[in-house]
Specification:
By secondary structure, the protein is an alpha+beta fold. The chain is built from 2 helices and 4 strands, in the order αβαβββ. It has a 4-stranded antiparallel β-sheet, with helices on one face. A hairpin with a 4-residue loop joins strand 3 and strand 4.
Amino acid sequence: RETAKRIIDKVGRHIVLPTDVEPTVATIADVETLRQRNAFYNKAENGDHLIVTPDRAILYDPDKDIILDVAPVQIQPAQAPGQQTSSQ
């Protein structure tokens, strides 16, 4: 948790982050698998960080202290089991 806070503080020097919600921070451990699923990770390397806010995904290289890429995200609320959306 302390590591995530340090990363958020560093990224916050480069881009405005929301203050009302704590971003999710993950360290990239298998970039090749991620690249196969999404081109967003093409600039990333193992050891870089992914910071996810309610509306953005941010790739951050801690060694160079730079933001590699930013992409919009839409987090869909999970549906309850058996619940269907109406198409009317």
